[in-house]
Amino acid sequence: MKIAATARTALNVSLDQLMAQVGTIILGKDHHIRLALACVLARGHLLIEDVPGVGKTTLAHVLAQSLGLQFQRIQFTSDLLPADILGVSIFDRDSGRFTFHPGPIFAQMILADEVNRATPKAQSALLEAMEEHQVTAEGETRPLPAPFFVIATQNPAHQVGTFPLPESQLDRFLMRIQLGYPDARAERALLQGTDRREMIASLRPCMPPGELLLLQQAVSQIHISGALLDYVQALLTFSRHSFEFHAGLSPRAGLAILHSAQAWALLAGRSQVLPEDVQAVLPAVAGHRLQRVGALGADAQDAATHLVNSVAIP
């Protein structure tokens, strides 16, 4: 379905209001907010990796509140079981049969808080939900609500009590970002301002229900030229044939780059993707999928930057 120019303009106004509102809570992180919104618009899942206390959970809360989505938080711990996420069947004596009680995964936006503090078995409960937007529990497949997003927070791997996310789980995340510490000006405003939890509670959705789905449709209509496809394919080919990387980018990663670049272009108010859009999203999309030979896992984000610098625009 084509979206008319007037409707697209109205959607862009809603996006501007959304970014402004999120920016009143997450101070001094406009680029990171734009990446997070691009991830949501591209129908992807977001992984936020950083030290505790820099606003990872707050970003998830303010996005859910501003988008008007049904929100559930799952605290990942070492004793978490898959049934705690997906749900469980309980015998009902009145009806004489088992009744399925849905778990917290059955919400539009899920915050998987400190996802790498759970065991790989518990982490695996997210795989089908993130890829297929459905859950298979006790022999029955149940669809998840639409839209459906997972925002996961992750502590650095060197911290005590963490389990590394396997590559298959990492690949389910469209983007990985790191918020980092705020600059001095933003931190001063944060220290002097109102408690962020109180501010989030007072927020109102920036768009009516269903508008987010229209925005996602608008993203898919952003034009991608043949020359732009040549550039993306050149990036993929270089990553696969260069001896500097342990493994190249997959076709799924290529699609992730394109969809993210389309969302980035929409946020900029344009109807076509430019090479600059690809370069803007590539570190967040490819940073957790690439690793340079001889580099530590913590330096993996640098691999995407190296890829951008190594491939010329056709």
The average pLDDT is: 85
**Main beta sheet strand tally, sense and closure:** 5 strands, parallel
Choose one word for the global shape: globular
CATH architecture annotation name of the largest domain: 3-Layer(aba) Sandwich
Which topology of the largest domain does CATH recognise?
Rossmann fold
**Going by CATH, what is the homologous superfamily of the largest domain?**
P-loop containing nucleotide triphosphate hydrolases
The number of helical elements comes to 14
CATH class (first level) name of the largest domain: Alpha Beta
**How would you spell out the order of helices and strands?**
HHEHEHEEEHHEEEHEHHHHHHH
The number of domains is 2
Q: Strand order of the main beta sheet, please?
A: 2-5-8-1-9
- Strand-residue proportion: 5-15%
Q: What ranges have pLDDT less than 50 throughout 5 or more consecutive residues? A: none
Radius of gyration: 20 Å
Structural class: alpha/beta
Percentage of helical residues?
40-55%
- Give the number of DSSP strands: 9
Quaternary state reads single chain
Comma- or semicolon-separated keywords:
alpha/beta; Rossmann fold; Helicase, Ruva Protein, domain 3; 2 domains; five-stranded parallel sheet; 14% strand
